[in-house]
Structure formats: structure tokens, C-alpha cells
Please model this.
Amino acid sequence: MRILVVNTYDIAGGAARAAYRLHRSLLEQEIESQMLVVGKSSDDFTVKKYDLNIKKIKSRLRTLQYRRFNPIENYPNKTKTLFSTSFLSFSNIVDVINEINPDIVHLHWICDEMIKIEDIAKIKAPIVWSLHDMWAFTGGCHYDEECGRYADGCGKCKVLGSEDENDLSRTVFQRKQKTFSQIPNMTIVGLSRWLAGRAKNSSLFKDKNIVNLPNPINTTKYKPINKIIAREILSWPTDKKFILFGAMGATSDPRKGFNELQETISKIEDINIELVVFGSSKPENAPKLKFKTYYLGQLHDGISLKILYSACDVMVVPSLQENLSNAIMESLSCATPVIGFDIGGNSDLIDHKTNGYLALPFDSDDLARGIEWVLNVENYDELCINARNKVLEKFDSKVVAKQYIELYKEVLHG
Model:
């Protein structure tokens, strides 16, 4: 069985890391897997970078032209949520996919102009598509900010700040509608129960086979180490309680909930606390937080992350919309309990008062209660054990890879 995992990047970003983990998990199960990307950061020979060669100049010119006439610029009231039109692509990457001739093409995150929407229908092999956000079934937004208009064809896009029924989101939606109708064999994977449910409610995927399978994680790499040792490595005090917050664009992406975190932190009474932020450097106009705060910037390697998770007492993920968070999974795998709002895919990972705390959506008071509960609960060590066990049972790479292999067999043999 030959699988081609397709993602814009190999290890840069949450979706990339998740796709790469699946690719490596398949290889460990002796599946012939290859990964195709346009942005390669690793030195893994099983990851093939699309070589632009002579076409690089043409592609660059097209990109410059696109930026000059970027249709998104017609919407001055657009929110900060990512919006992708996929009008352009890197030349003949679909030809490369077809030349590799895999048994199954497993698409993941394919934006940043990796593939033009219309080109997806030119892929000859059966398609499995893992959804790392909502983009595949919306008119361009990666998260809909609870708009819900993807169920009816988009238009009046909340993310674009538009009141026009026939706006850019409607145009992109109709392009997807026409393209997807031409693909007879496409299976959609919702990485969380929440996203699988949203995909089923979408008019673009209502006739497609939709399954719920998670991302995998290598639990031999993401495992707990002694907390005192971890803090000594980081030169942190051993007599403080550490709260961890982190994500790509942790302080700049409103969806990640940094504003909600600030409000929550102000309501915590315990003074023996310090805060750690990773995924973003210290902002130019950093807010004055109640507790001493460490800004660690972006961390890319598993060893640094394992030390960080192990050094902290609890992780807080106050996202406003969330699929299946790598950060939550990594933290739990390192036996550090997690607190988040009861939204999206958080409940797939967090079991309330068993390995963490699910707060009432967007209620900073309850989020603060959750932090104080975890930090002061008598059976804290049991929470940590439960956190690790949940990941070993449900998300370990060996467990998840076997589930994907069974899905591939079903796709190939019906």
C-alpha cells in the first residue's frame, strides 16, 4: 500500500506537525508512505519537496500579481481570522502527485497557494482529506467565528466583514462546490468529533463519507520527566506553581484566547504562581499581567517541548474555536493536566476533573476556578497519571496508525 501525505509544510505549524507524525507512524507500521510539501524544514529523506526549478520565476510572478490584485484587500473590515482563496497554485504539483502514482493521496493542510481548488479534481488516486480546520468546507475562512453560513453556501461573510450575499466567500464556495462534485472517491476525516460534525452539516460535504479519526502522537518522545529536573534545566524556581499557555501566534491570534487568559489570570488569588507563554515572543506592548511571565518564543523540537510541559503544573488552552489541539495532546502525553473551554475538540482530549478541567465556554470565572482546582486538588498526581493514560490509550501513534491503515483498506476495497 503506497500512501502520499500532502501538506504545504512538513513540520512548520500545527497541521504540518500532525501530518508529519502520521507519515512517520505509517512508516513505523511498514506502510510505504511518502510526504510531499512545498516548504521543507526537516532533513527527512522520506519528505519530498516540490522542486520549482525553472517554473519558480513564473510562480513568483504569479504570486506578485496575486498580491497586487488580492481580492481580500477589497474587505477593509476583515477580522484577523485566516482566509484563503486558493486561486493560484505552484505550477504542476498535481502532475507530480499523479507521477508518484500512490494508491491513496492523503491531503492535509494545502493552503498558502499550494494547490488551486480546481486542481484537486485532477488528482487520479482516491483522496482522503484530514481537516485541520474548517477551510475545506467554507467559502475561505479557516474558522467561521461561529457564523455557520457554510451550511447554506456562505456569502455575507463574518470573517470578511461583508454584508454582500455574493461576496468573495460565495465565489470561493461555488468553486469548491463545482470541484468537489467531480471527485467520486473522497473520504473526509474530521480530526475531532466536533469538526467531523461540522463537516457533516456542510453543504459541500453532505454527500461524502465522513469519519472521525484523531492525530497520532509518539508517546515515547512526548513523555514526562521529573519536574524538578525539568525546572533545573530551565533555571526555574522549584517552589512556584507554573501555568503554561502556548500556540502558534499565541499572543497575536485572537482565536487562541490570550485576551481571555489575561482576564482569567486577574481573578486568581494564589500568589505563588508564574506564567509561561510559548509560541510567541514578548509583544512590543506586552500587557501587565498579575504574575511574573516568561515568553519563550517558538519551540520546534520535541525535546524542548517535553521539558517545558514537564516543568509546568498545568496548561491552559482558552481558545475560542479549536479542532484537536496538538498542544493539549502533547501536554497530556507529558502528564501535565490541561484546562480549556468546553468547545470544539477539547472534550475529545480533556475529561472533566479526571485529567483536567472543561470550563463553561468563554466564562473567565469558571476558567479561573478550573486553574485553582487543578493546582490545589488533593489527587493532583492521579490527574497526571490519567492525563498520560488517556493519550496512551487513544492517541498513541501505533494505535492511531492502525486505524488509518484500516481506513485506507476500506477506501481501496470498498
User: Anything to note?
Assistant: The domain at 2-216+397-413 is CATH 3.40.50.2000 (Rossmann fold).
